[in-house]
Amino acid sequence: MVNRLRSITGVRKVGHAGTLDPFATGLLLVCFAGATKQVDQLMALEKEYIAVFEVGKQTDTDDITGAVINERPFGHLGKQQVVEALEKYRGEFLQVPPAYSAVKVKGRRLYKLARQGKEIEAIPRRVTIYDLQLQNFALPDMTLKITCARGTYIRALARDVGNDLGCGAFVRELRRTRIGDYRVEDAMRVDNFERDFSG
Predict the structure, then answer these.
(1) What residues in the chain have per-residue pLDDT under 50?
(2) Which residues, 6 or more positions from 43, have their beta carbon under 8 angstroms from its beta carbon?
């Protein structure tokens, strides 16, 4: 993405505020030239996501790109049970990053160790979820609206909620809809940017 934008604009200094998982869609803030100095400030802004969790299965990446490692029945689940399970994830709490993440352990990225088949216990990190709403409940899917602070892993949230419900869960769809006051509906698509700015 960054290299593509450099080639379009001819600007060497290009930075983005907050990486999206490969399967995810939505808003990405991109800074050019002197504006790259604002990247850290922008990354600290709260983020909003719409996520679809699929229950009854666990994957090794905690998302749709991974291999299914466990399947469990979910017919016992009711909407109120899910609402109650989500309560503990509002506010500040400790979260263990996914095995496939960019978090470093002893100087090495977890995802690199995971790809080598090495099981490394990640250190829990303090994260904050400001708001967590169940928007739709249609098993095996449930759609959540999540507003959170920097460093929160939605994949880890799906994993933990699924474990609490006793059936497992993974993120099937993920869309970032807002970063601070920046909203996805006001954003420019990359292909449109290329058309308008490549000359």
Answers:
(1) 8
(2) 17, 18, 150
**What pLDDT is attached to residue 188?**
82
Residue of 21, 62, 63, 160 marked catalytic: 21
Q: Which two tokens stand for residue 188?
A: 């420019």
- Kindly report, residue by residue over 50-62, the tens digit of the pLDDT: 999 999 999 999 9
List the beta strands (DSSP E) in the chain: 14-17, 25-26, 29-32, 47-55, 57-59, 68-71, 91-95, 104-105, 108-109, 125-138, 141-148, 169-179, 182-183
Q: Which domains does the chain have, with CATH numbers?
A: 1-45+186-199 (no CATH), 46-179 (3.30.2350.10)
Who contacts 69 (Cβ-Cβ below 8 Å, separation ≥6)? 58, 59, 60
Rg (CA), the chain: 18
pTM: predicted TM-score of the whole model, two decimal places: 0.84
Q: Is there a catalytic annotation at residue 21?
A: yes
